[in-house]
Amino acid sequence: MQVTQKELRNMTGKPYCEDITHGTEEDYQRIMKEEIWLDTVAYSTGMYGRSGTLYRGHKTGKMYVITSRTSAIYLFP
Fold first, then answer.
1. Which of 4, 24, 27, 64 is surrounded by the most beta carbons within 10 Å?
2. What is the pLDDT of residue 72?
3. Which helix (H) or strand (E) covers residue 42, if one does?
4. DSSP for 47-66, written as a single string
């Protein structure tokens, strides 16, 4: 489902959603160990491609959000 960046940013204040916009390789390893894989729930696109994504963890169902075009977009599939 395509959404706006504003809608993704609004998700960051929710207790069930973790902001991983500035996530590192260590964050990626921790989340992958916990979840096994992530399902894409929603995404935002812009002039240069994907600019944000909302993921749901496979095992726990926890939500993870990337709200801008940072290196985390390339770390998390």
1. 64
2. 87
3. strand 38-46
4. TTEEEEEEEEETTT--EEEE
